[in-house]
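Predict structure. Input: SEC12-like protein 1, 371 residues.
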Amino acid sequence: MASDGDEAQAGVAGKVTCAAWIRRPGGGPAVSSSRSLLVVYGRGATASSPPLLDLLAFDTRPCELASEPLLRVVMGEKGADADTPRAIAVHPAGDEFVCATAKGCRLFKLVYDDFCINLISSDSPPLQSVGPQRCLAFSTDGTKFAIGGENGHLRIFHWPNLSVLLDEPKAHKSFRDMDISLDSAFLVSTSTDGSARIWKIDEGAPLVNLTRSSDERIECCRFSRDGKKPFLFCTLVKGNDIVTMVLNISNWKRIGYKRLLRKPISTLSVSLDGKYLALGSRDGDCCVADVQKMQVSHLMKKVHLGSPISSIEFCPTERIVISTSHQWGAEITKLNVPADWRVWQIWLVFLSLFVTSAILFYTFFKHTNLV
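Output follows.
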């Protein structure tokens, strides 16, 4: 239930405009491992329904989303586009998220009880009247939060007190994409004019503009996440050629290029463990590439039937992605990639090797005559 009185029994809910995974903190006896995930949907307004937020349970075993939301929150009036959710950023702890609308950003806190979940809308004056934002990003450690506006205004806050680390009204002409490095030291941002900049977060200042030729456009950007190889991935458009380029973050020089999806890219994402890179195209196709090999591991054609994919987000615990488009809403796809080894599986292998060695040792000495 929503504790701020914003629950709604609306008519036909609007299409999903944005979506995000939420990993429940802790777990506890009331939360099984297969039901430890939630999905939050932002829905647009219709003639009979206001803009909404839906919170739904996700079961990893059958890879299914619950048919009915755990709770539903009204964001505005019926037929009003101003309050339609545009983007959602979830704090890594899983206990709060920020939702962007045309007016600004709203903060929601999740309160987990043994048998229910409450969603509380919290006042956050530094975020409420910032206007429409194109990009939202939490740092991996949850101590930084950044927003990039349609007007090119960049703001970086310390979380949760929202003290300002950087406030640059003219960071770009208008934001295209944004990401924070794994160590929370850098922020990369790209503009609708094809430029890209690196910002030093703690110093609250720009560090470097990424080099590009006059006929090149840098569009999407993501930092690596495996903690071993500090790379920056960017999609680069040069004429009719579309590639994914890799840069070394020690000197911001280009290391190489790879043609992965071979068509105009609308969005880019990296899995939380850094092993996979997802690209969504402007005609509704997706691909997932192995970062180590930089080869496509899973190709999804016409996931959104010709509509540009607006976002792709990897599931925090499973090889599953959720993708959204303005025309078709949200789609959840289970990836056809090698499964990760679980801790119990590794210990099972060690135990099997130990038992096998013990049997061989016993058999050898039983049938060997020692002089």
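The mean pLDDT is 88.
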